[in-house]
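Below sits the subject:

***
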Amino acid sequence: MRKKVIISFLIKTIEVCKVSQTVSKQDVLHIATLARLKFDDEQAERFTNDLNNILGYIDKLNELNTDNIEPTSHALDVYTVTRPDRAEASLSNEDAIRNAPQSENGMFRVPKVIE
């Protein structure tokens, strides 16, 4: 069931894009230039083929009927793993500065970093 929901979300996202184009080598080189990347001819061809394979897969996903499937934003259930935020006793000022290399008037003394 979860796979169907994920696929549904992907398909609904892809439907917005209406992907049915192919990517040319010039497109790949243009994108590489914008991203300040340099590809040789072999790499540009490989990326062109890879991107067209991805777009072909997206077109294939567009063929699925997802009318009765709710979209989802996460593949797994999301829950927090943090502890509850509760006020608790903390270190006293004396305990906190006990191991400080230097302290002054109950505060950490640090080297000046701004002239």
